[in-house]
Amino acid sequence: MWFCHPLSSQKGGFRFQTGASPDGEADAKDEGLIEFCLGPGRGVERPVDLLGPLRRNINVGGPWTLPRASLLGQHSHGARSPQFPRLSSRFASLWTRLPHQHDAHNTMATAPAHELKLDPKYDDYDYPTTAPTPQSGHPGHTTPEQDAQVHQLRSLLEQEGHTKNLDTLTLLRFLRARKFNVELAKKMFQDCEKWRNEYAGIGVEELVRTFDYKERPQVFEYYPQYYHKTDKDGRPVYIEQLGKVDLTALGKITSQDRMIQNLVCEYEKMADPRLPACSRKSGYLLETSCTIMDLKGVGIAKATSVYGYLQAVSAISQNYYPERLGKMYVINAPWGFSGVFSVVKKFLDPVTSAKIHVLGSGYQAELLAQVPAENLPKAFGGSCECEKGCQLSDAGPWWDPQWVKEPKWAKKNDDNAIDNTGMTPQIQDAGAPAPAAPVAADPAQAPITQPQA
């Protein structure tokens, strides 16, 4: 991670340190840092992970070795770059773990487009299953070797008693997140299933069925986080205004646990019904979202105040919802954030780097090139003005009866599990009660509830 630590009161400012823990401690390999001297009295009070807003949308990879000259801000001939006002020279042998999306197609040839190889036992899709962009390891663009790895992963998980979420699209996402290393993908999947079964004491699916975020309108006054329509490629657009965070006010309205539980529910609703509805409307498979992260008003002090929350949600998104980032626009980015990311970006996977756009206050033209004006809230340069406010509308194809269908999580107990009782080992409890009947398939009766202003 890149942590921001305070300098002395005489120096003022802050330093960026990689690989360190939040308290600044590091092992022998993690001595690299970058110092920004801003003058006396302009430091930070405690460590901050400045890339936290990105980290929650990108899987963690590495380690990566950053050349000393690059971090010193020097050109190849040794002259100091004006990029940073003053940089520490204490970063020989710098090792770091950077935000990085594992894209298998960067090391493998892209296979010709073809129909997804469906498993008759697990794959029951009523929407397109071919990704629009030819990238190796993505649905419709897999190699025979990758297809075999999907089968291998599924077989290993079946042998250990797993019965849910073994469809091909899900397994491909976990394999891509681990560069098609079957053992690593298996561990990631198992950790995810354990978390899903235990989360909040009732499991993720029961939570999303029953969670009532009645304080949503009040929370959004101090921390807007919402989905709103689609980008030009048909993806759901997710907007988060980190600069509006007021933890004191939020503490009187809700708790951090409920905020995180709401985020988990929104992740689930993005996976189903939002993405399937968008796929049906677009005519091709959509598995990712377009994120707009507004940092207007974010300073070091505010970033520090939400560190715990960002750390928690980052872990959830990285570990349990892999391969969900399509595009990300970080707008109104402060100078410190832009400066650090300009260094980090050089060492990111090119495909990941192309997904992330860190923009200042003049972001409108680039953002409008991705999100149609009629779909972008007026506050961000678009023309959309929803009747009860864009942030509470949840407007999108997922509300259109032509495209939406009942989400799978709406089915109680094990209705969406596959019977593997003929396999060894056997984990089904023969004395378990029969699953409850599924809710009505009418989209109007689906448990996803329209937020009220």
TrEMBL record:
Tell me where on the tree of life, at the top rank, the source sits: Eukaryota
What Pfam families does this protein map onto? CRAL_TRIO, CRAL_TRIO_N
Q: What is this protein called?
A: CRAL-TRIO domain-containing protein
Give the SUPFAM superfamilies listed for this entry: CRAL/TRIO domain, CRAL/TRIO N-terminal domain
Q: Where is the composition biased (Low complexity)?
A: 425-453
Region of interest (Disordered), ranges: 119-150, 410-453
Ranges of residues in domain CRAL-TRIO: 215-388
